[in-house]
Amino acid sequence: MRIRVKKNSLAIRILKAIGIAGMVAIVATSPHFGLGLIGGIRKRYNKETWRKFYQSLYYLNRRGHVKFLGTTDGKINVEITDNGKTILELISIDSMQLTRNQEWDGKWRIVIFDIPNAKSCRRTAFAGKLRELGFIMIQRSVWAYPFECHKEIMILRKFYEVEPYVTYLEGIEVEDELKWRGKFNLKTSTV
Predict the structure, then answer these.
(1) Angstrom distance (rounded) from CA 133 to CA 186
(2) Most buried pick, 13, 89, 152, 190, via CB within 10 A?
(3) Domains and CATH numbers, the chain
(4) 107: pLDDT confidence band, cut at 50, 70 and 90?
(5) How far apart are CA 99 and CA 143, in angstroms?
C-alpha cells in the first residue's frame, strides 16, 4: 500500500485526530466544525482553512480511511476505518522501535525473504530497516530477533510491498543458539 498523502499534511493530522478519538461528531453547520480537533493549525480560522479541512476530510473518506456514519443533531459522525488505522501505522515506520523485554521467553523470531532482483531497492530498504530495529543477519536473507515483533514485521512487509516474499517464523531451538544469545547479550543459562 502506498501512502499518497504527505506525513504532515492536513489530511494526516485529521486522520490522527480521528484515530485518537476513534469516532468524532463534527458540527456540520459551523464553519469551524472540526478545526478544534487539530491543534496548531491556526488560532484564527478563515474560509480557506475551512475549505481545506472539508476537502481533506472528504479526501480521507474517498480513500476509505474514514467513513461517515450519518448525521444526528446537525453533526456528522466520522469514524476511522481499518484502512485508516493501517495508514497511521505505515506513516509511523520512521519512528518504529521494537520493545526489548527484560526477560527473554526462549523464542527466536526469524524473518526470511527472497525478494526478486527487480525489487532490489525494496529488498535493500527492508533489510536496512531490520538492521536498524536490532535484528542480526544470520545469512544473507535470514534475520533473527529474540523478542516479540510479529505486528511490526507485518507492517514492514506491507509498507515495502514485499509481502509475498517475506516469511516470519518463531522457533525455540536453533543450532547456534549460544552464538545468537551472545549477539543480543542474553543470559547463557537455560530459560
Answers:
(1) 17
(2) 152
(3) 10-91 (1.10.10.10), 94-183 (3.30.70.240)
(4) very high
(5) 17
pLDDT surpasses 60 at 166: yes
Residue the block writes with cell 475549505: 51
The pTM (predicted TM-score) of the whole model is 0.59
pLDDT category at 8 given cuts 50, 70, 90 is low
Instruction: For residues 149 and 98, give the distance between their C-alpha atoms in angstroms, rounded to a whole number.
Output: 7
pLDDT at 124: 93
Residues near 1 by beta carbon (within 8 Å), at least 6 away in sequence: 86, 87, 90, 158, 159, 161
Query: Are the CB atoms for 84 and 66 separated by under 8 Å?
Result: yes
DSSP class of 41: S
Q: Do the bridges between strand 166-171 and strand 23-27 make them parallel or antiparallel, or are there none, so unpaired?
A: unpaired
Stated as kind and residue range, the H or E segment containing 148 is none
DSSP label of 151:
H
